[in-house]
Amino acid sequence: MFACIHSNHGDLFALASSFSPSVERTSPGTVVFSIAGLGRLIGTPHQIAAEIGRCGASLGMQARGIQANLAMANNPDTAVLIATNKPGVTIVPPGKEADFLGHLPIEVLNTSPQLLETFERWGIRTLAALAELPEIGLAERFGEAGVYLRRLALGRTQRALHIATPEIKFEKRVELDHPLELLEPLLFVLSSILNELLSAMRRLSLAANRIHLGLELENKSRHERILEFAAPIQDASMLLKILHLDLEAHPAAAAITAVKIELNPVAPQSVQHGLFLPSQPEPQKLQLVLTRIAGLVGEHNVGSPAPLDTHRPDAFVMLPFRPPAPAATLATAEIRRRTSLQIALRMFRPALQANVRVKQERPAEVAATGVRGTVLTASGPWRTAGEWWTETRWMRDAWDIDLSDGGVYRIYLQLDLRRWFVEGVYD
Amino acid sequence: MTEAYVELHARSAFSFLEGASIPEAFISQCADLKVPAIALLDRDNLSGAVRLHQAAKKAGIRALVGAEITAKEGFRYPLLVETREGYQNLSRLLSKIKLREANGNQHQAAATLDDLAEHSRGLICLTGGEEGPLAFSQPIMEKIIGVFGEKNVYVELQRHHLREEERRNQAAMNLAARFHLPVIATNGVCHATPEERELMDVLTCVRHKTTIDKAGRLLAKNSESHLKPAQEMIALFADFPAAIAETRELAARLSYTLADLGYQFPPYPVPQGETMDSLLRKLTEAGARGRYGNYEGPVRKQIDRELALIEKLKLPGYFLIVWDIVKYCRDHNILVQGRGSAANSAVCYSLGITAVDPIGMDLLFERFLSENRGEWPDIDLDLPSGDQRERAIQYVYERYGRLGAAMTANVISYRGRSAARDVGKALGFESEMLARLSSLAPRWGYQDPKDSAQRQFHESGIDLQQPLVQKFLSLYCAIQDLPRHLGQHSGGMVICQGRLDAVVPLQPATMPGRVVVQWDKEDCADMGIIKVDLLGLGMMAVLEDSIQLIRDHSHEEVDLAHLPQNDPDVYAILQKADTVGLFQVESRAQMACLPRMKPENFYDIVVEVAIIRPGPIVGEMYHPYLRRRQGREAPESLHPSLEPVLKRTLGVPLFQEQLLRMAMISAGFSGSEAEELRRAFGFKRSEKRMQDIEGRLRAGMTNNGITGEVQDRIVKSIASFALYGFPESHAASFALIAYASAYLKCHYLAAFTAAMLNNQPMGFYSPQTLVKDAQRHGLHFKPVDVAQSQWLCSIEHHEGKQWVRLGFNYIKGFREGTARAIVAERERTAFTGIRDLVRRVPGLHKEALNRLAEIGALNSLEAPDRREALWQSELALRPVSDLLEPETPSQEPSPLAPMDAIERLHADFRNSGLTIGRHPMSFQRGRMNRLGVIPAADIRLVRDGVLVRIAGCVICRQRPGTAKGFLFLTLEDETGISNAIVRPDLFDAQRTTLVSAPYLIVEGMLQNQDGVVSVKAERVRPLDTSFAPAASHDFR
After folding, report:
1. Looking at CA atoms only, how far is residue A337 from chain B in angstroms?
2. In this complex, which of A121, A382, A390 lies closest to B161 when CB atoms are compared?
3. CA-nearest residue of chain B to A143?
4. Positive or negative: CA dihedral A144, A145, A148, A149
5. Which of A124, A280, B304, B736 has the highest CB neighbour number within 10 Å of its CB?
């Protein structure tokens, strides 16, 4: 016998697993499992059904008002068809499958729309009508698929369950005996968890490319940190160092009562080093360096700048840093070679607010922090305006000026604010 | 105007998604900015040139001609026309590169340097901006100079306040110095004002199929590509004033404008010793003798008058060419009839171009042709839609050469839904939001004044406070009427003496073998290019097919020109509005009018055709005419002097010709002046022109002693009629066809119905309604049958009567080739069964076979019922090798239950959209009786003012612009058709039900007056039924 539970909510897999090690996740919200042998442990199918109900209640399903259907039948398909289409508990006595399935509409069959359309044309609207069609006639027309559907309608299929393998998770939560306020004892706890999780990962030839640290605090709030790594890491001490640095930069707001670490498993990075290339630092150490830098300059200011596809001047985004592949390194070198003769503009970030005296619609004098002088020549205005459909619309007139202080600067007037800025200086 | 600067490089919305302003907007802006001339250089076309020229002419601005020509390498050559030879070269160049590519590949049309070299004379080449040749490659300069000559190449500088542009300008100036070329300033304009930059960005997104958020650097860098005044351009080029001065020099050099088009209508080839004048006179006289016998008196006088004017205006060639097309049609059994104002001409009637006797009907010749109008007369020919019309079109191509004739274009512009969809997509709205926005775009005939965009948005749950929605709204309004792409006009053809491609660029049409010009019919008319409209009329095809079916099955020859006059059966069905399927008199409004009008003679049909038009309705002529017709009001003309003009229409002006005559009599206008008046008040209204002519009209009437209220009433009726009125000649031409259709329906119902079914979609009603109407008139139908049916519906003889056999064309998705293969195979040997059918007709795929089985078309192949056929079909379709195929078909009986009547009905609708079985409502009759629903056939027996309930399948929903928000519903049941009227407030309250429910129950007060029966709806609810709906004809 097989039992099928169908519900849109609740951990059905856990419920089924408490009765059988052979559980199939048929679809989201549907599990089917063998109840063979439960008769000697629990009793009749009705008693088994009652026990499943009780167990579901103990898992909190009843308390949460979760509605579930349960069907028991001699084969998994019948159990699934009835559980997914008939409310409540249904126990199908052996040999009576066709009676229970017969009234179900033909659409319950998980088959192709073309086949359903053919049945609709034929006037076959229920499983009982399908069951009445001659098996040979169906075989001639639809081959094995037709025969299988008819057997489904009769409740006469037999198959093994597709046993679900539980997903391996690398996570651990530790509830602390007493709240921790200092970082050092916390690192001790973290070290223990990381050693355990990364040992498990190494056994499976996996590495972590992301760590999710969740700290439950005494004040009932949570402190969450998610760190992604440029190269996957297997070394627990390195990961601990990274967490150490990160927690120094982002300390928890209150004493810690529980710790949870979740590692995302990926295949470890394998790099074939070139024989004649200079040796490079281990990519795993990169993350350590990046974390140190992030601690100094802020995590949003670390990474690889990438220009945005917009006319907005100086628009870029910081992407997580990734070590370039050797080929890309060569391309970058080539680009550098080609662009080495171009004039460079050193940007002031943020731009320096400036006082500009305008004469005949051209800048005549400029004064800003560290920049002051009379404009000798000015070229412009270079006008850009865009993103008119958003609140971040911009309009600006930029000028390239040769200033009496000997520098060549780029200044601009932000037209909506009517304010001047020095954007950078040309080398 | 200041002569300081001329804009020589502007791109309009006719560059299709590469410009955001229409040509008229450029001219208006030129006028505001005092720019004396502008050159329009649209990408690979001259489609905007005429509109620019016309607008410029009115504004006193010079419109210079040019185009950007796409090069094979991807950049564009900006070319300006210096002389007429240059214009012809440009037009030929465009035609050459366009015609080289198929219609679907027009975006790949591009020119090589050899193409340019062949057509370079009279053209001046600029170097463009970021899309010009210099931005692509500087070494190409030498080649350009080689093609155009150094005096005809100008180095172009553009300044939009962009750094990289300045770098290009520096390089361009170096090149200019090196090659000693003049330098010229332009602003590379692609929108008239800075504000239109946003629209330009939206169009860019549409062109690149992206959204504004993702478009990035595809969008404009700033808003500087707009038309700028001289002082701004002078300031921009303060360091290089010669570039500005050169614009004046070059503009002065560009002597060509479209005023010098050089178009000539082709002469008609005449036999030795004849002239076109003499040939036309000879043909007209011969024709007149056929029409009028030995004509003398007023007929001869009129014909002589017309011929004299035609000769004076040098138009005999035009008449001969149209006569030649008509002759070709007659010689090849293609039904043809002239319509429109040509029917006012006795010459056209004599030549057989039109079928209405203008003298007998006292029609006004000046409406057709007048001496001072300065434009070509308009002759439209109605032809059977489909292949026959195509034959006539191909004849014109053959006669005048592929480069001597072409169809006119149809400019597809942004309107309602297309505007909402493209703007919404560009702004990145989700598909659900797009669907909601599109649904808000107007599609009703009637526009409720309360239906402001704000209200519609609010009701649809769209928050107008959102900035992006506000942007959408403003852009949606701004994009209206902007050209989107060029299509092909339904029937307008232009013909030219010599090569048409030297007059206007040609390009391939979607339909193979057709060529279109880049101008629409208005442009052609404005440029004085003569046009012949070869229009496809579904009813002409029906008449032609009917005549053939009658010839084949009744062995009678029907001559439409000699149908019995005043056939009582025809007037009987017209009087009781039994007009489903008839030409022009089948609409709900016509049906409501006919029982009041009670047509008794041909002229009544002419009036009937003309009276259900916006003109008489807006001009409030409809009800007075009907009251007078019914004797409830005395006929009285607006003024005694107008009595002769208005007597025929009981003192109420109904036709355009009447307004011309009214002006001639009351204000002493000449025929030409009267026509000028009609045009001034017509669709292209100009306030100034209207005021001017109204002043003259009033002055003339005052001189003739017509003053005060009478004068006002006459002016009002003229004003409303000029816009919407129907020419009497046109109505008469249509009335002839209406009479013919009624005659055939009365006397040859089977042939007429088969022909109607074979020419769908056309007319007002769905095939289902046509079938049910024919059945109520006693016609029997046979279903589709693979052993009997043809591709088209055909006629069979049973029990001494003609039955209509449905054709394979009534099976959804069925291919004509498959149907013809079935017929060919069955004529070879009859099919022995379904497997035999499948084996011998390999093109019969599964879906088609199942449809055949499901509608009973296989029942004659040893399948006693539809389900048996379906059971067998499924087996027949299984691929079986010859080796394994059974010698005898399986004898296994079908286990499937036969379809019941309702299932058959469903199958019929699902697979063919109609049923020849019971009407869906007949299955509901018991329930309807219990609900007190009155069948349609009985409703006219109920007296006026009784509360009734009607129900049926909705076959027509209308909310015409003239009905002030009322909705007209037509319901059909198994006994006939009933009508309901829904008040605006009820419509607002039950909009969803009324718009979408396929079956309705309507309860309300019955109005039964003068034989016109309708229910004034008080309550409406959907009829709960699972039946498939018949197609409803909505909102026209």
Report:
1. 22
2. A382
3. B878
4. negative
5. B736
pLDDT at B342: 87
Over the stretch A10-36, which tens digit does the pLDDT of each residue have? 788 888 988 988 899 999 899 999 998
> What residues in A contact B849, CB-CB < 8 Å?
none
- Helix/strand/coil for B971: strand
Question: B274 CB contacts (<8 Å, ≥6 apart)?
Answer: B282
Record: contact A311-B892, CB cut-off 8 A: no
CA distance readout (Å), A117 to A250, A344, A385, B429, B801:
61, 69, 57, 35, 39
Q: Which residue of B has its CA nearest to A391?
A: B467
Using CB atoms, which residue from A379, A382, A390 is nearest to B162? Answer: A382
Give the per-residue pLDDT at B201: 97
A77 touches chain B (CB under 8 A): no
Beta carbons of B903 and A386 less than 8 Å apart: no
Cβ-based burial of B598 (10 A; exposed 0-12, middle 13-18, buried ≥19): middle
B277 CB within 8 Å of a chain A CB:
no
Contacts of A309 in chain B (CB under 8 A): 214, 216-217
ipTM: 0.74
State whether residue A138 sits within 8 Å of chain B by CB: no
Distance, CA of B341 to CA of B367 (rounded, Å): 6
Tell me the mean pLDDT per 10 residues along chain B, length 1036.
85 96 96 96 96 94 97 94 96 94 79 95 94 86 94 96 92 93 96 96 96 95 96 94 95 94 86 93 93 86 94 90 94 90 91 90 83 75 90 90 88 88 93 78 52 65 80 89 87 85 91 88 87 91 95 92 90 95 92 92 92 76 88 84 88 84 88 77 62 87 89 81 74 93 97 96 91 95 96 94 96 95 95 92 92 94 89 84 57 87 92 93 92 93 94 89 84 94 90 86 92 92 71 56
**pLDDT in the model for residue A21:** 86
Chain B contact probe: residue of A106, A118, A119, A122 with most B CBs at under 10 A: A122
Residue contact A389–B903, C-beta within 8 A: no
Calpha distance A347→B378 (Å, rounded): 70
Secondary structure of chain A as H, E, C letters: CEEEEECCCCCHHHHHHCCCCCEEEEECCEEEEECCCHHHHCCCHHHHHHHHHHHHHHCCCCCCCCCCEEEEECCHHHHHHHHHHCCCEEECCCCCHHHHHCCCEHHHCCCCHHHHHHHHHHCCCEHHHHHHCCHHHHHHHHCHHHHHHHHHHHCCCCCCCCECCCCCCEEEEEEEEEEECCHHHHHHHHHHHHHHHHHHHHHCCCEEEEEEEEEEECCCCEEEEEEEEEEEECCHHHHHHHHHHHHHHCCCCCCEEEEEEEEEEECCCCCCCCCCCCCCCCHHHHHHHHHHHHHHHCHHHCCEEEECCCCCCCCEEEECCCCCCHHHHHHHHHHHHHHCCCCCEEEEEEEEEEEEEEECCEEEEEEECCEEEEEEEEEEEEEEEECCCCCCCEEEEEEEEEECCCCEEEEEEECCCCEEEEEEEEC
CA distance, residue B137 to nearest chain A CA (Å): 20
Q: Which residues of B touch A141 (CB under 8 A)?
A: 874-875, 878
Task: Return the residue of A nearest to B163 by Cα.
Answer: A382
What distance in Å separates residue B872's CA from the closest CA in chain A?
Answer: 9
Residue of A389, A395, A416, A426 for testing the chain B interface, max B β-carbons within 10 Å:
A389
Cβ atoms of B741 and B542 closer than 8 Å = yes
- Residue in chain B closest to A396 (alpha carbons) equals B222
